[in-house]
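Exercise 7b. Backbone tokens:
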């Protein structure tokens, strides 16, 4: 379908659409970042900000809990499904309608996830929320691109991509501003707690709600309306665009005209015939099955002879880019945490064969190992244990009250006639211990750490700098996208990113890792922007969102693999992640050079 009108000769009206698209794109990144960020000091709260509810936190208040990875990866799974499903529906039901559906799903379940208490239900909410996030991404690019003229399309789609960065910065800023204040919130009895991490998740759902409201005032894509034969509605929107642009130019007298239109063949007669007969559920069943059949046909169309090679090459480029980028984005903070741990463990203090009796501990013990000690009639009151381990020790007639702990364990200890009152020394912290006549009067619920002290500012800084570092790449790609072309932008950016990966062999300190992370993110963002642009330009209007959804879904599959593979090598070797990322980037970058250039493509 091709429609050329004077309405699209100007670039003024698109700014209104761009503002809404910016909000949508920022929300995509915001929710994605909420689902990925990690905190070394309190993983149960900050791990992807997908914390287990408070009564489920006890097994999670340990470093690198296996629940952490599931909470982050399940959102990518939802995004993968949502991209394919809702992207395909957008080519049949409309861009605006499916965007509203995607945002409503995301907003509802993101909001709900901040209140739920069961861990399984929490993961379910984040899974469905991810479905909405994934669905909105391919639709917003198809929607916005269809309001742009050919000459400035690459540039303005790149400006849209910049709000991926803004969403990341907002998430990092909100995390640092909200999560450390663990006292923010309220409790209802002993079962329901609403703490700072819940406030963070709630705040991060607000931009989605704002985008949903703003989208109600935006028109449907006129290209989509022309594609489905709704010419009158399309003309009204195009005339509105034309009049707005001409008033901005100071030429309100110019008349709206259409130079050429090609009307597509309609294929929905089967639905209309069936809608006149049968019961209401039979009619809905026919409509639903027919719609999904049409979506499936669109998927298969992307693999027909005309588009097969382009689709397969784009799929490889998307996958290699996602595997390396998302893998390294998780690997960087994990490596920084590992370097911090190594430095921390090198300062451990070891106490052997100490004997303490009738002493009151009311201060913090940190980074210590106590072996073969004997503690008789001692009191541990209002204190904190941080990274403390008691091995082969004896506790006799001791009293623990109002004690909080992190990474503290009692191993092979004998504990006799000891009372634990209002502590978070749970059962899993006593490893192969003998407890004789000991009493647990009350246990703390949730993780009760002082966030102001325990949260490591460096991790928030890493997240913030990683988001901010893409700004130069965003600006450069926007200014050069329509000058040097999409193909050179993708190939050059991926090859430069591969070179950056090799320098990671020299990243043996926290500052070096942060620097290389910023350089890698800044170099790779141009490839992401160009991939988004070329994907919407390679396919016709009635297949555009479907194709973008398929490739975006494959991208999330690469993200899942990258997260899983790269994180498994932390503390083991740097060689495999670096070689895997650089090889994927080189292979994807060279293959991208074989794609057709789309700068002159008319949508």
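Sequence design result:
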């Amino acid at each position: 379908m091709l429609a050329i009108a004077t309405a699209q000769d100007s670039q003024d009206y698109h700014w209104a659409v761009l503002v809404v698209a910016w909000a949508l794109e920022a929300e995509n990144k915001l929710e994605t970042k909420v689902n990925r960020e990690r905190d070394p000091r309190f993983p149960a709260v900050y791990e992807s900000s997908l914390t287990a509810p408070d009564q489920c936190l006890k097994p999670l208040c340990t470093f690198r809990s296996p629940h952490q990875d599931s909470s982050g990866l399940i959102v990518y799974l939802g995004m993968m499904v949502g991209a394919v499903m809702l992207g395909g529906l957008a080519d049949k039901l409309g861009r605006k309608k499916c965007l509203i559906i995607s945002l409503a799903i995301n907003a509802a379940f993101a909001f709900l996830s901040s209140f739920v208490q069961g861990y399984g239900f929490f993961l379910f909410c984040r899974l469905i929320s991810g479905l909405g996030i994934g669905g909105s991404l391919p639709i917003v690019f198809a929607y916005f691109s269809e309001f742009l003229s050919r000459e400035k399309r690459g540039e303005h789609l790149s400006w849209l991509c910049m709000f991926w960065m803004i969403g990341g910065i907002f998430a990092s800023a909100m995390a640092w501003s909200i999560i450390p204040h663990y006292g923010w919130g309220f409790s209802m009895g002993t079962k329901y707690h609403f703490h700072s991490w819940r406030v963070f998740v709630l705040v991060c759902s607000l931009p989605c709600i704002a985008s949903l409201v703003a989208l109600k005032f935006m028109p449907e894509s006129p290209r989509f309306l022309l594609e489905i034969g709704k010419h009158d509605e399309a003309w009204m929107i195009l005339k509105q665009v034309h009049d707005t642009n001409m008033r901005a130019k100071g030429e309100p007298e110019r008349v709206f005209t259409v130079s050429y239109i090609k009307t597509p063949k309609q294929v929905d007669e089967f639905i209309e015939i069936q809608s006149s007969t049968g019961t209401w559920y039979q009619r809905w069943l026919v409509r639903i099955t027919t719609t999904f059949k049409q979506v499936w046909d669109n998927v298969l169309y992307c693999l027909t002879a005309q588009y097969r090679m382009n689709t397969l090459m784009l799929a490889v480029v998307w996958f290699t880019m996602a595997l390396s980028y998302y893998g390294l984005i998780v690997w960087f903070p994990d490596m920084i945490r590992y370097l911090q741990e190594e430095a921390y463990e090198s300062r451990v203090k070891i106490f052997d064969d100490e004997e303490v009796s009738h002493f009151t501990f009311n201060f913090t013990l940190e980074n210590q190992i106590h072996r073969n000690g004997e503690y008789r009639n001692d009191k541990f009151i209002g204190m904190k244990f941080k990274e403390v381990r008691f091995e082969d020790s004896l506790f006799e007639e001791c009293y623990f009250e109002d004690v909080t702990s992190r990474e503290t364990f009692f191993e092979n200890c004998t504990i006799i006639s000891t009372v634990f009152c209002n502590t978070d020394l749970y059962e899993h912290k006593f490893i192969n211990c003998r407890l004789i006549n000991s009493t647990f009067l009350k246990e703390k619920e949730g993780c009760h750490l002082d966030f102001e002290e325990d949260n490591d500012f460096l991790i928030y800084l890493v997240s913030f700098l990683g988001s901010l570092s893409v700004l130069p790449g965003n600006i450069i790609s926007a200014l050069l996208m329509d000058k040097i072309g999409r193909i050179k932008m993708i190939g050059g950016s991926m090859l430069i990113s591969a070179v950056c990966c090799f320098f990671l062999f020299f990243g043996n300190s926290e500052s070096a890792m942060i620097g290389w992370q910023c350089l890698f993110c800044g170099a790779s963002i141009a490839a992401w922007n160009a991939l988004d642009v070329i994907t919407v330009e390679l396919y016709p209007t009635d297949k555009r969102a479907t194709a973008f959804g398929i490739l975006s879904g494959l991208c999330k599959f690469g993200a899942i693999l990258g997260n899983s593979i790269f994180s498994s090598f932390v503390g083991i070797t740097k060689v495999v992640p670096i070689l895997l990322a650089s090889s994927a980037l080189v292979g994807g970058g060279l293959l991208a050079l074989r794609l057709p250039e789309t700068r002159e493509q008319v949508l």
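Instructor comment: Residues 66 and 287 are 43 Å apart (CA to CA). The chain is about 60% helix and 10% strand.
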